[in-house]
Write a sequence for this structure.
């Protein structure tokens, strides 16, 4: 299947959804619309709202803030995940002792922490960053832990026979192995950083895309809610595309999974 | 015929590798002990090429790991006369499995072998380029291992091991996974590189033809567990050898028959053991 066909099909799906939405919300069948305007708004209204957001440029500030929180959550969470993942993998005793705590912390729904973070870090960006960090940390941590623990023993033995000592093993074997595991979860990690930021904003803030959506919901402004969600979706797609570019650069050494048809 | 069982040859100068009365055992999951090999006496003189043949699962690789210092042993392991403690730093090891770092290009994989010796990066890369040229991969410097064929990966691994100029080469069925033609080519490549500066080589294989065409001496192992060396054959074929030609010589066939006579019963025994239950 060519790229063009793929793209056309993808656009067709969006067009179909919008069409159904438009007909349902704007064309009365037997006197009433299938999708009442109050609950579903209309594609035209939502588009007009998005246009307005970009026209008066207010939206950029919100996108900027959400992306800042996402980036901070991603880098801090990854940093902690890498350090502690390495530590656990190299010290199995520490890992064994702390195992139940890690499991409990990971299983805890992070949303319940959000209000606590607001109390601790205030309504600014740091409470959102903290929420994102708790999500990103575990993804990176588990991957790095696994990556370092399951380094191919033959590659390790070979490196040792080549005369490598601890520091060189770290640099040439453990570190690349851990990074390759981490990069393979890059999409998930970045995605969760964004989720943390938006959920945090949604639960209490004065700026950001989550705030925008929450504010619109507060006044039953359905067009505003949909407009916010669509902008968020576009931001997510762009971020994901950037991650793919980065990933292709970083993992050039890896065999591609059988190329798509 | 100079073949037949004999005691390991005594030499005046220190052997490159010397195992005396070596036994290697592993602890299994159920805490019982599995004796892989026992009563191993062998020596490899400097510059000598020794191959070990034996049925599958007889502990051939275990002996190599012992000489490399990768497993603990009971008994005496000496390297150039000195007892081995920890890793054998004077040996290069070519593994059966792929052991290249998949995240490094062919060039980087070979060059990195010089880093522990403190060779500057630029110099290491120049030398690596030279070695990859010697193994016939001058045009594949920037390929990652997954972009190379099995034979090409072995060539990179060979360059990676030889660039450090180890005094001893340990080879664990290094060409085992390759097809027959490639294996013959790799054998010839190895011999031509080896003849340039005759290192002591201990080469493990299950392929009798390969063992004879490469070696000065072939050791035959019994079936495991508790395998031991049951025969030793001196290979008096002239060098330099081209393995495709030498395999047509009558002397080659005589040696092949003699060694196979020792090996056959063990192979059958290993086969029966494997049928009887899991190893």
């Amino acid at each position: 299947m060519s790229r063009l066909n793929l793209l056309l099909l993808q656009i067709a799906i969006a067009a179909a959804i919008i069409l159904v939405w438009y007909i349902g919300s704007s064309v009365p069948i037997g006197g009433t619309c299938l999708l009442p305007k109050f609950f579903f708004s209309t594609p035209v209204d939502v588009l007009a709202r998005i246009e307005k957001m970009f026209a008066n440029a207010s939206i950029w500030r919100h996108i900027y803030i959400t992306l800042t929180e996402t980036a901070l959550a991603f880098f801090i969470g990854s940093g902690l995940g890498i350090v502690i993942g390495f530590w656990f993998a190299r010290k199995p005793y520490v890992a064994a002792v702390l195992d139940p705590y890690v499991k409990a912390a990971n299983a805890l729904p992070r949303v319940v922490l959000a209000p606590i973070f607001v109390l601790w870090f205030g309504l600014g960006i740091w409470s959102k960053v903290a929420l994102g960090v708790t999500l990103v940390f575990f993804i990176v941590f588990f991957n790095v832990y696994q990556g370092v623990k399951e380094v191919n023993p033959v590659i390790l033995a070979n490196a040792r026979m080549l005369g490598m000592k601890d520091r060189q093993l770290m640099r040439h074997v453990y570190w690349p192995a851990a990074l390759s595991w981490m990069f393979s979860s890059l999409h998930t990690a970045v995605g969760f950083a964004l989720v943390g930021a938006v959920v945090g904003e949604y639960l209490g803030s004065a700026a950001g895309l989550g705030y925008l959506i929450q504010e619109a919901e507060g006044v039953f402004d359905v067009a505003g809610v949909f407009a916010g969600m669509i902008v968020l979706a576009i931001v997510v797609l762009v971020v994901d595309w950037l991650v793919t570019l980065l990933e292709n650069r970083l993992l050039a050494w890896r065999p591609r999974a059988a190329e798509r048809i | 015929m100079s073949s037949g069982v004999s005691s390991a040859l005594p030499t005046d100068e220190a052997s490159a590798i010397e195992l005396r009365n070596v036994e290697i055992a592993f602890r299994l999951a159920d805490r019982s002990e599995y004796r892989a090999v026992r009563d191993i006496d062998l020596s490899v003189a400097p510059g000598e090429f020794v191959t070990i043949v034996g049925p599958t699962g007889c502990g051939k690789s275990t002996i190599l790991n012992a000489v490399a210092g990768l497993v603990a042993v009971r008994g005496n392991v000496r390297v150039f006369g000195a007892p081995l403690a920890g890793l054998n730093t004077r040996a290069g090891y070519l593994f059966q499995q792929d052991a290249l770092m998949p995240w490094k290009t062919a060039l980087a994989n070979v060059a990195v072998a010089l880093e522990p010796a403190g060779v500057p990066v630029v110099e290491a890369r120049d030398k690596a380029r030279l070695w990859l040229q010697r193994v016939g991969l001058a045009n594949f410097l920037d390929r990652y291992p997954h972009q190379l064929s099995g034979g090409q990966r072995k060539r990179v691994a060979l360059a990676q091991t030889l660039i450090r100029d180890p005094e001893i080469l340990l080879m664990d069925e290094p060409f085992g996974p390759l097809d027959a033609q490639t294996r013959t080519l790799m054998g010839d490549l190895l011999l031509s590189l080896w003849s340039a500066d005759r290192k002591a080589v201990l080469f493990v294989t299950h392929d009798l033809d390969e063992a004879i065409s490469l070696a000065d001496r072939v050791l035959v192992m019994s079936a495991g567990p508790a395998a031991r060396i049951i025969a030793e054959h001196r290979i008096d074929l002239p060098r330099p050898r081209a393995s495709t030609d030498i395999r047509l010589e009558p002397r080659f066939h005589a040696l092949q028959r003699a060694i196979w006579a020792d090996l056959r019963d063990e192979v059958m025994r290993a086969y029966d053991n494997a049928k009887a239950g899991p190893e």
Observations:
- Chain B has eight helices and ten strands.
- Residues 1-11 of chain B have pLDDT under 50 and may be disordered.
- Strands of chain B lie at 17-27, 33-44, 49-53, 74-79, 82-83, 91-94, 168-172, 200-205, 217-221, 229-234.
